[in-house]
Amino acid sequence: xxxxxxxxxxxxxxxxxxxxxxxxxxxxxxxxxxxxxxxxxxxxxxxxxxxxxxxxxxxxxxxxxxxxxxxxxxxxxxxxxxxxxxxxxxxxxxxxxxxxxxxxxxxxxxxxxxxxxxxxxxxxxxxxxxxxxxxxxxxxxxxxxxxxxxxxxxxxxxxxxxxxxxxxxxxxxxxxxxxxxxxxxxxxxxxxxxxxxxxxxxxxxxxxxxxxxxxxxxxxxxxxxxxxxxxxxxxxxxxxxxxxxxxxxxxxxxxxxxxxxxxxxxxxxxxxxxxxxxxxxxxxxxxxxxxxxxxxxxxxxxxxxxxxxxxxxxxxxxxxxxxxxxxxxxxxxxxxxxxxxxxxxxxxxxxxxxxxxxxxxxxxxxxxxxxxxxxxxxxxxxxxxxxxxxxxxxxxxxxxxxxxxxxxxxxxxxxxxxx
Length: 419
Ligand SMILES: *Cc1c(COP(=O)(O)O)cnc(C)c1O
Ligand SMILES: [Zn+2]
Hints:
Layout: E1 4-9, E2 15-16, E3 31-35, H1 37-43, H2 46-50, E4 80-82, H3 84-90, E5 95-99, H4 109-123, E6 127-131, H5 135-147, E7 150-156, H6 161-168, E8 173-177, H7 181-191, E9 198-199, H8 205-210, H9 213-222, E10 230-234, H10 239-253, E11 263-269, H11 274-280, H12 306-316, E12 320-323, H13 325-339, H14 345-359, E13 369-373, H15 398-418
Parallel strand pairs: 5-13, 6-7, 6-9, 7-8, 10-11, 10-13, 11-12
Antiparallel strand pairs: 1-2, 1-3, 4-5
Helix pairs in contact: 3-13, 4-5, 5-6, 9-10, 10-12, 11-12, 13-14
């Protein structure tokens, strides 16, 4: 039923059994799942996929877990929206938005966690855990609750309220660590050696990471079994970014689509931009940073897949951009005001970087582009709370409303005239 065959080192190619391990004993390279693609080619056709459930489980043949262990709270198969108003605003002919704000815990992390928890149950783990910048904690806590499993989530101590309560509500053991994500990750890596828990992004990371490929599978299917000219996606560890490209290539490998020629571009916040900075310096070796940005979900200063993300830009003719906190807020507002989608800060990063790359002529007007909106805005209200208009406040009286509306309109007129 599943076509995962082994774990393979990305550096030296050595193979390992499908165990809860993540790095090569010989060269310390990261392990990645290897598949029996001939088997997948036999099992998965366009028809069989189209007849599948309206969740990421329609791609079960491509996932490294036995679907009988799945914890299905409705993740995936999110809308791909033709964004004509945003396209016009940024200067593109054709723009699509992959709207992953509508997942069960309101971010794309539900994809990676769906796969990780299924695999963890298959391994026989009783408890889930993770090191998180916020969204992962929300998703691990939600899925663990639905599975009735014990849950330990670790987050930095400077997260937005929406991310903190967004984990706590599912009643995990929520651990707030004094420090940055990179400190949290270091602590969890140490703990994973002594606690028998499935740390989704540590000891089961090779399986977890594969969940992001479902974004590529969905986009290709939703475009009518083809790939776009250009992709813009946010980068934290760089995993999501690299797995989108892997997903396109795999769909081609099993004969579902033509060879992809998509240029892959990544988006970061200036306050945490190790990958985009290395891209600008034309090197594949990034320098770790100490994050300082409102885009906390992307605040990984030492990105595990940074090198592979940079290699992929080179290989596909894509690139990277970075934007300031103010540009991130403007990106969130532009997306909301043109397309009716309220994204968190990571979405603001993506939209603002998209705009920057079109302005610079790096993305040409006629390139059909897909931008990935990976998390919902109600989780990061702090970022925009002082940037939206005050409500028009009235007593429940029609005359007071007319006065108030006139006042608001003349104020708006004065602002527009003065600008
Ligand atoms: C985690 C996250 C990402 C990207 O994470 P990677 O570590 O690069 O895979 C993007 N957007 C949001 C909202 C996230 O939470
Ligand atoms: Zn190796």
